[in-house]
Amino acid sequence: MLEEFKKFALRGNVIDLAIGVVIGAAFGKIVDSLVNDIIMPFIGALGGVDFSNYFVGLNSGVTATTLAEAKKQGAVLAYGNFITVAVNFIIIAFVLFLVVKGINMLQKKKEEEPAAPPAKPDDVILLGEIRDLLKQKTV
Fold this sequence. Notes:
Elements: H1 2-9, H2 12-47, E1 56-57, H3 67-73, E2 76-77, H4 79-112, H5 122-138
């Protein structure tokens, strides 16, 4: 059973999937930083808005003005975090769209390259030579 598991774990598809997951996690961190550190501050500066502190207290005991303090006071509906996650999703989807589109363009260019015509089989060449010789004799 251990040998069978070793064969499964070292199969190419499993390793490719593991590499994809690791790269995906790293890509997620990059996109998260792009959104939180670069895009959201511009959006906040344009409208004077900080989405992270948008919330609604779900009971009368919540009187704080920041989300962190409000969570300590009671239940809150933090819709600002949802807006941030939605913007993250849109950016990730757009970036992945551009990546897939670029890969498709590269594959299309590879397909468009003309391939060398396949060599004729020996029997076809020989038959062609016989035909040519017969034409010469009949002329």
